């Protein structure tokens, strides 16, 4: 249960981070930016903001 709660907490933090990153410094079309990397034991979580050509 704790691991699931941690995943939900991480998802909320990443979602909040993506919102503020996109709002403050939009990447140009067809670019991406790495928002965060978190290593927890044997797991690696990578958060990426991607903007494609159609957006």
Supply the key terms.
single chain, alpha+beta, two-stranded antiparallel sheet, elongated
Description:
This is 17570_t:CDS:1. The chain is α+β, with helices and mostly antiparallel strands and 55 residues long. It has one domain. 42% of the residues lie in helices and 35% in strands. The protein has 1 helix and 2 strands. It has a two-stranded antiparallel ribbon. Strand 1 (31-40) and strand 2 (43-51) form a beta hairpin.
* Radius of gyration, in angstroms, nearest whole number: 13 Å
Strand content: 25-35%
- For the biggest β-sheet, the strand order reads 1-2
Class computed from helices, strands and strand pairing? alpha+beta
Residue stretches low in confidence (pLDDT < 50, at least 5 long) are none
H/E element sequence: HEE
Report helical residue fraction: 40-55%
State the end-to-end CA separation: 37 Å
Total strands: 2
Major sheet description: 2 strands, antiparallel
Q: Supply the number of structural domains.
A: 1
Assembly of the depicted chains: single chain
Mean pLDDT metric = 70
- Shape by Cα distribution: elongated
Number of helices in the DSSP assignment:
1
Protein name: 17570_t:CDS:1
């Amino acid at each position: 249960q704790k691991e699931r709660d941690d995943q939900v907490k991480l998802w909320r933090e990443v979602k909040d981070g993506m919102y503020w990153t996109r709002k403050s410094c939009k990447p140009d079309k067809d670019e991406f930016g790495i928002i965060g990397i978190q290593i927890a034991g044997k797991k690696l979580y990578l958060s990426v903001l991607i903007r494609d050509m159609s957006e």
